[in-house]
Amino acid sequence: MTKAELARQLSVIPRTITRYETSEAPRNVAAALAGALNFPVGYFDRDGAPMFDPNEVRFRAARRASARERDAAVAAGISGVEIDRWISKRFVLPEMTLPSLTGNDPETAAQLLRGIWGLGTKPLPNLVQLCESRGIRVYSLPPIADAVDAYSIWRSGTPYVFLARRKSPERIRFDLAHEIGHLVLHDGEPCQTAALEREADAFASEFLVPAASIVEYLSSTPSVADILTVRTQFKVSAMALAMAAHKTDWISDWNYRQICIELSTRGFRSSEPGGMPNYEMSRVFPQVFSRSGSKVSVRVVANELDLPVGDVHALTFGAELRAAQETEVTSDTSHRNLTGQYRLHAV
């Protein structure tokens, strides 16, 4: 909503809205603001909300997103941090084990992180749940912020990733790996440079499909059928797998061109036919909202934080509306058993 639109709804001039934003609005306007913006009245009286400096936010698709869409994504992230603080006070979440790998090239950083997390060179499990098991907070963005694709940020020593949900599951998985790259490589670096985006892409590619895995799983003269088989194992897009194999010089220029041509004619340039059947979902939120005998619900969280119920639903993967998926991740301290489950405990 623009200032002019809000001013019309409140029967004031746009300059008045600017004054409300830069200083404060009179208390008797709270109800009108709440009605126009669809927020609880109590939201406008709350203190201590976290703030994001726009300069510290790296948007995955900054150039494609408008300023309004970027602002909406940042606002959603602020609410996400508030929800996370609410949950963290009441539940014991997995310990954060995301190291700083600044100074390493992206491929080395990806290999180091796989080693630290005990992942070897095998296909990664559910990436949202893997991140959660290592203390990374992953939230989903509401549709109004879809255009930014994703962004990440450190706040008080906690890493956060915010994901839009408008692309294929494989591409969202790549976006999440891309943001992990920013978190481990670029903390404190200037935002939105093409060089940093390329580094995060290189990290994501190596993290999802290590060069050593390509040699192990893919022949040096693969057919498109081979590419599709391996992309299903690693849960990446067929184009991304072909590109990774070519960048490592495992397949020839000619073979790569032929694979790309065939994939394009079969619709893989803009979608992922026959790909992952479901989006990867959180394990934290279903446990928070579905604990046996628990009185925690999205509405309870929304009421205590004075947030719209729809915003809490949107940020938490709609977890209260979905059955919890079986996880492939454990919080086992050895980081080697990837078939168990991690459980949250109430404080």
Key features?
globular; 347 residues; two-stranded antiparallel ribbon; 15 helices; single chain; alpha+beta; 47% helix; four-stranded mixed sheet
Briefly, what is this?
This protein has 347 residues and is an alpha+beta fold.
What can you see in these coordinates?
- The chain is of the alpha+beta class and 347 residues long.
- 47% of the residues lie in helices and 6% in strands.
- The strands form two sheets. A four-stranded mixed sheet has the order 1-4-5-3. Strands 2-6 form a two-stranded antiparallel ribbon.
- The protein is globular and about 70 Å long.
- The protein starts with a helix and ends with a strand.
Number of strands: 6
Distance between the termini: 39 Å
Strand order in space, largest sheet: 1-4-5-3
Biggest sheet statistics: 4 strands, mixed
Mean pLDDT: 88
Gross morphology is globular
Following the backbone from N to C, one meets helices and strands in this order, namely HHHEHEHHEEEHHHHHHHHHE
Q: Given the helix and strand composition, which structural class is it?
A: alpha+beta
Number of helices: 15
Helix coverage percent: 40-55%
Low-pLDDT regions: 323-340
Rg for CA atoms: 22 Å
Q: Classify the beta-strand content into a percent band.
A: 5-15%
List strands and helices in order, with pairings.
Elements: H1 3-10, H2 14-22, H3 30-37, E1 58-59, H4 67-90, E2 91-92, H5 106-116, H6 127-133, E3 137-140, E4 150-155, E5 158-163, H7 169-185, H8 194-208, H9 211-217, H10 224-234, H11 238-247, H12 253-265, H13 284-290, H14 298-305, H15 309-315, E6 345-346
Parallel strand pairs: 3-5
Antiparallel strand pairs: 1-4, 2-6, 4-5
Helix pairs in contact: 1-2, 5-8, 7-8, 11-12, 14-15
